[in-house]
């Protein structure tokens, strides 16, 4: 009797998962394309929507979501104020035409573990993408980040980034459940309204591996993004005597899982290990909250998606 009950429960669970998967496929198949793809971690150029749709830009697609980000420095410093924070973000994405897509978001001031009188920190990002083929696109990203006060009172200012590049993906199996993704580009950043004006130019590259299971109900992605400094200048004002900045190669390793529900909702969780410079040599880091120094980050996100009909021009 007990054995039959276990078998019955097991069968019900499998039936429920199968039903969710089939319903999810029907809900997302409005575009008649529904396959595996790649991810966006932090400000990477590829869209996690591509995990489900084998198109660089899906006509009529939109989504709106929120996330909670838990970050802490990987190494401590006696001379720099590197905070552990909890932060909420809001983001969205919309297809403007058959091959143009606009996305953006902002991060609200964080909750810090430490008591601080520093100005509240905020970030914003805006990205445009243009499909050049079914599975490749060109992108441009603009970002602003409020500068941190790492070593006592400093001028309150902003760090601005501008990045451009090319991204794409290629399926590795005949059933199109596993895909290899990449992006190549360039990034320039500079501090504004600060005591000094540090700046840098970087070459950017990233690779990822994504896949789906249970008829695309569950998705996973893992990969790495790299920023290679090419040119730099300006003083590291957060260090005594403000030496010239000495940026090092930045690397972000990430892993992500998500559940795509038939109702249009998605739940995701990401782990990110970020590496940039050494706190013992503070001229090798940047005074920004995300991507400025070695960090461990966990992100949990919720979003809602849809596909609308585009008017023919």
In short:
Helix content is 9%, strand content 48%. The chain is mostly beta strands.
Q: The biggest beta sheet, please?
A: 12 strands, antiparallel, barrel
Count of DSSP helices? Answer: 1
CATH class assignment? Mainly Beta
Distance between the termini: 66 Å
Helix proportion range: under 10%
CATH superfamily: monomeric porin ompg
Gyration radius from CA atoms, angstroms = 21 Å
Overall outline: globular
Q: How many β-strand stretches? A: 13
Oligomer: single chain
Report on the structure:
The chain has 313 residues and is mainly β. It has a single domain (2-307), classed as monomeric porin ompg (Porin, Beta Barrel), CATH 2.40.160. It is built from 1 helix and 13 strands. Strands 1-2-3-5-6-7-8-9-10-11-12-13 form a 12-stranded antiparallel β-barrel.
Protein traits:
313 residues, mainly beta, Porin, twelve-stranded antiparallel barrel
Topology:
Elements: H1 2-28, E1 61-73, E2 85-95, E3 100-107, E4 111-112, E5 123-133, E6 136-146, E7 158-171, E8 178-192, E9 199-213, E10 218-233, E11 250-260, E12 265-275, E13 295-307
Antiparallel strand pairs: 1-2, 1-13, 2-3, 2-4, 3-5, 5-6, 6-7, 7-8, 8-9, 9-10, 10-11, 11-12, 12-13
């Amino acid at each position: 009797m007990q054995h039959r009950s276990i078998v019955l429960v097991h069968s019900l669970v499998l039936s429920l998962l199968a039903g969710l998967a089939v319903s999810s496929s029907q809900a997302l198949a409005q575009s008649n394309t529904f396959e595996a793809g790649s991810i966006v971690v932090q400000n990477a150029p590829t869209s996690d929507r591509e995990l489900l749709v084998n198109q660089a830009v899906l006509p009529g697609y939109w989504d709106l979501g929120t996330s909670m980000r838990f970050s802490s420095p990987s190494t401590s410093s006696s001379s720099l104020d590197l905070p552990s924070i909890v932060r909420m973000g809001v983001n969205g994405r919309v297809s403007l035409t058959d091959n143009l897509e606009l996305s953006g978001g902002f991060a609200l001031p964080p909750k810090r573990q430490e008591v601080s009188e520093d100005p509240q920190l905020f970030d914003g990002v805006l990205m445009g993408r243009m499909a050049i083929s079914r599975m490749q696109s060109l992108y441009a990203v603009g970002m602003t980040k409020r500068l941190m006060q790492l070593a006592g009172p400093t001028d309150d200012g902003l760090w601005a980034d501008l990045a451009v590049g090319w991204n794409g993906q290629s399926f590795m199996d005949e059933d199109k459940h596993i895909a290899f993704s990449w992006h190549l580009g360039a990034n320039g950043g500079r501090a504004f309204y600060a005591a000094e004006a540090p700046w840098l130019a970087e070459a950017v590259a990233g690779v990822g591996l994504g896949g789906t299971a249970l008829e695309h109900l569950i998705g996973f992605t893992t990969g790495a993004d790299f920023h290679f400094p090419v040119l730099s200048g300006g003083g590291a004002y957060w260090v005594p005597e403000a030496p010239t900045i000495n940026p090092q190669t930045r690397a972000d390793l990430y892993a992500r899982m998500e559940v795509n529900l038939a109702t249009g909702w998605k739940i995701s969780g990401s782990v990110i290990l970020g590496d940039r410079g050494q706190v013992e040599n503070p001229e090798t880091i940047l005074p920004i909250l995300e991507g400025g120094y070695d960090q461990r980050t966990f992100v949990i996100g919720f979003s809602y998606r849809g596909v609308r009909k585009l008017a023919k021009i």
